[in-house]
Amino acid sequence: MKRVKTGIPGMDEILHGGFPKRNVILLAGGPGTGKSIFGMQFLWAGVSQFNEPGIYVALEEHPVQVRINMQQFGWDIRPYEEAGMFAVVDGFTGGVGEAAKREKYVVRSPDDVQSLIDVLRAAIRDVNAERVVIDSVTTLYLTKPVVARNTVMLLKRVLSGTGCTSILVSQVSVTDRGFGGPGVEHAADGIIRLDLEEVKGELKRSLIVWKMRGTAHSMKRHPFEITNEGIIVYPDKTVSY
Fold this sequence. Notes:
- The protein has 241 residues and is α/β, with parallel strands linked by helices.
- The protein has a single domain (3-233), classed as Rossmann fold.
- The chain has helices at residues 11-14, 35-49, 63-71, 78-82, 113-127, 148-161, 182-187; strands at residues 3-4, 19-20, 24-29, 54-58, 86-90, 105-106, 131-135, 165-171, 190-199, 202-212, 222-227, 230-233.
- The strands form two sheets. A ten-stranded mixed beta sheet has the order 6-5-4-7-8-3-9-10-11-12, with helices on both faces. It has a two-stranded antiparallel ribbon with strand order 1-2.
- It is globular and about 50 Å long.
- 46% of the residues are buried.
């Protein structure tokens, strides 16, 4: 089986070598758990370490802010954009504002899934993308939960069909133990849950791979940290709450 290395220290050990190629992974977690950083680091590792072009679909933040956020970890994505190896799809601004007018890939109707898919297809084709992160997929069906499964299945067909290995960021509330809804959970090939829990008056980060189609993986909950250089996972340590 072909695998796609995450490039996140410690994560590939937990996955026994990386994500199976073409898998669509649901990355679920509450606010502040590090979901966006995980996705950005996956894309950065792709272009900087493995020569694998990538796309970041920004549905909740301005593309300019996305680049600033990546830069804070030392991930300067602009040279890769200029080289045609990386693209940010703007699904946030709707093309409104001066900065938005300079973006190459703009979804004019961010709440129209078909419009998003059309722009995403063009971006995948242009950069020959192998990795895609959609942050967050929850935005697409927040007000219409009944269409959640159909939305994810539509994205899955496009992403897997073009050969991409993808992360769909899924938001859940702090108290929710799920992953974003039954339809969404069943549509995904893999599920990774990130958590931020209070333990003896201190917040602790951990993650667990709930499922991953096509590969064995660690069944344990592992601690991780967010450092100045991104996420570090500790595969030889476990956490219990």
